[in-house]
Amino acid sequence: MRRYYVYILTNASGTLYTGVTNSLWRRWHEHKLHTRPGFTSRYHIDRLVYFEIFGSIRAAIRREKQIKGWLRAKKIELIESMNPGWKDLSLLFKERRVPPEP
């Protein structure tokens, strides 16, 4: 079964970025290394603070659009529901606590 992820990244000043991907580790790594020009590279957004897993790309995209339409306060509430300390969840990759990708 394929997995799709909706994720939120931030930077040191708290700027938020919401995205969708089929490989959370790969996409986070691209953000971390700033391999693609754009918003996340320009603002050094590379700390993973939230993610959700979906079995369908359509459901993931629908959720991404929903979150992107929210005000900042609601996004912060969502992040803090899973990650109250705003820890960098990319550490879960090293601890193998993120489900393996096919």
CATH topology: GIY-YIG endonuclease
Shape: globular
Q: Write the CATH architecture name.
A: 3-Layer(aba) Sandwich
Can you say what the CATH homologous superfamily is? GIY-YIG endonuclease
Helical content band:
40-55%
As laid out across the biggest beta sheet, the strand order is 2-1-3
Number of domains: 1
- Helix/strand/pairing category: alpha+beta
> Biggest β-sheet, characterized?
3 strands, antiparallel
Instruction: Write the element-wise H/E pattern from the N-terminal end onward.
Output: EEHHEHHH
The overall strand count is 3
CATH class: Alpha Beta
pLDDT < 50 stretches: none
Cα separation of the termini: 8 Å
Mean of pLDDT:
89
Continuous helix count:
5
Radius of gyration: 13 Å
In words, what does this structure look like?
The protein is of the alpha+beta class and 102 residues long. It has one domain: GIY-YIG endonuclease (3-Layer(aba) Sandwich), CATH 3.40.1440.10. It contains five helices and three strands. It has helices spanning 24-33, 39-42, 57-68, 72-82, 91-95, and strands at residues 4-10, 16-21, 47-54. Strands 2-1-3 form a three-stranded antiparallel sheet, sandwiched between helices. The radius of gyration is 13 Å and the shape is globular. The model has no long low-confidence stretch (mean pLDDT 89).
